[in-house]
Write a structure and sequence with these properties.
The complex is a heterodimer. Chain A is mostly helical. Chain A has a two-stranded antiparallel ribbon with strand order 1-2. The chains are: A mainly alpha, B mainly alpha.
Amino acid sequence: MSGLQLLWFILIAVLFSGFFFLEGFDFGVGMAVQSLTHNENEKDQIVATIGPVWDGNEVWLITAGGALFASYPFWYATLFSGYYLILLMILAGLIVRGVSFEFRKNVPAKRKQFWNWTLSIGSLIVPFFFGVMFISMIEGMPIDADGNMSATFGDYINLFSVVGGVAMVLLSYLHGLNYIALKTTGPIRDRAKNYAKFLYGILYIGLVAFAVLMYFETDFFKMHFATTLILLVLMVVLTVIANVAVMKAAEITTFVASGATFVALVALIFTGMFPRVMISSISSKYDLLITNSSSSPYTLKIMSYTAIMFLPLVLAYIGWTYYVFRRRVKHAPVLETK
Amino acid sequence: MSIVALGRFQFAMTTIYHYFFVPFSIGTGLVVAIMETMYVITKKDEYLKMTKFWGNIFLLSFAVGVVTGIIQEFQFGMNWSAYSRFVGDIFGAPLAVEALLAFFMESTFLGLWIFTWKMVSPKLHVTFMWIVTLASSLSALWILAANSFMQHPTGYTIKNGHAVMTSFSALLKNPQLWYEFGHVIAAAIVTGGIIITGLSAFQLLKKKEGNPDFYKKSMHIGLLVALFGSIAVLTAGDLQMKALVKEQPMKFAATEGLYKNSGDPASWTLVAWANENGHKRVWGIEVPYVLSILAYDEPSGSVKGMNAINKQLVKEYGNRNYYPPVNTLFWSFRIMAGFGTLMLLVSLLGLFFTRKKNQLLYRQKWMLWILGLCTFTPFLANTTGWLVTELGRYPWTVYGLFTIKQSISPNVSVASLLISNTVYFLLFTGIGATMISLVVRELKKGPDYEEKLDEEEKRAAKIDPFDKEAFE
């Protein structure tokens, strides 16, 4: 295994972490539009908190996909063709959610409710199926000698993958609630915190179920006992921190902790798979490995230069955007966007 | 139906639909940037009104363009996994770079542009829009670098049955890339100019249009942009065609419906119909000399026909059918070039008849109708242009290296493809219908909508929506 192969394995994990950390709260806010608010004004208010940033946050996914294609074409090909219908659901969710932002502010008042629903449902579908995909992936999928996956319903949808999907939804929703608490004023801010306080109780149960299923359904504890255990414990610790912080109304700490939970989860998945990138349930001979599914050293080198040159710039202007929009949203920005 | 046929159908449907909105948003984005720049320079409110009004239509097209674009990146892996494995070492890099260099910039600065009207100086605000326009053009550059490799592979070697990159700069120096980039950007500029011209014309046709000056001024800017773009698109297209004669002779011969070698000088076929199974032309009307001029810039030189090229390709690459769908290519090319020329004429005459001395156009309804109907022509020209480029590469995905049949995902079932085709079709229909109804609604509201609002709403609009800082 070359240093560049390892670097890109880590970078892909970083890109997915960035995606869930940032887009995670967009999904949460999207779900909250139909579940947390009491009136149209509050819906507009919370949508305004993510208005300037959600599209940029989604680019983390596009970059992760592009980087996967460029640095690990065999992983990309196996994963994307194998998870055909799951990815179709994710795409459908992203599409309806994406247009909902623009459509809900332009349609006549009586149609607005429809696009509020598509926003919420789309925001729920995407994290659910990402959870299903990543968890069934680490359980191992029927991948043959040519790297082609021919899975059946039970391979995709089973107890652990559904728990994974629900956990993703719950984490996104909590992350969104924490973001709303951080970025708004008024009654919605308190309501978001109250919801979060309640849901953290449920998340503990979910985390225990997740850890137990991981022990029985994957080889993570056998392959990487120490890192798996440490990262699972870290997820619990971060949840406790977030839970305590939400009680103490330390909004920044809560938000950072819930975001970091996603990072720990992605790290758990990637370290557990290492040095594999796809696990074959047919035979370990057919596992896709970091060493045999990456691009050529030349391509990886070019990609590394590009990333080193431009990633700091990208992070700088993204950071600046969050600074520009650092203030809390008091009420819906009437005509602000027109 | 075979998975290859269903996969090709999906690629055609999703890319054509996506590409309705790409030149739409790049082009109208540019015009909006120009309008806002005029506002910053002249400080006239009418330009601010234009920026916001057309900006909203730009945002609608941008939103649909973004969401349909994600499908494209996923589609290669989902439907064309064998292709992805074969070419990923080369093809993935421009896609990743596109996201890193262009998409982040585009989305971040668009977010800033939409939400900082009251927060930053007008100069900084218009800079955001120019950065968005620059980023959109950059994204076109990178995705076309990927496409150009498929059309004309450069800087690679074949290793263990896979294409491996040997030179990244060769990917960017690919002459095909710069023809395509010039052509695509120029066409996007025409699209933006013509859409704003055409929609303004429809508004001016209304009996009770409250603010005709607004649309006259918008139309003027639209026509100027369209004229500039039209000249550029014809130049780029001409250069691209001359390269095609050498690089992809089969595509060129097919767009000319030429089965037998032409005479010298070669005559150009205005209209024709081919018997594709019999490999011969059924009928056609020819214009002498013109094809030689189009191909070589001089009134002499013959052009090879498809039958001779097919023989040559069989010798070079083995026994298979190398004839692309001739009638589709022939007519697509004529629709594209015909509408391209029409848009040049329309923008030229449009400017002539709206000049200060004689504003005949505003009094002649039929002229306004022509401009209005032109709104739809860039969509047809853009689509047919890509049909020529992509179908003309038949039977290859990567020219000379990898065929369409080899490219399909072997593990994807007919059922999965039928489901995904249906899902996309339904989503596209719903989104398209909503999009059109919202553009119409925006036009009905008109540019003075904000001024007509109730006093109370106006007061609410002035209140700063932001409270104290969150990260304190």
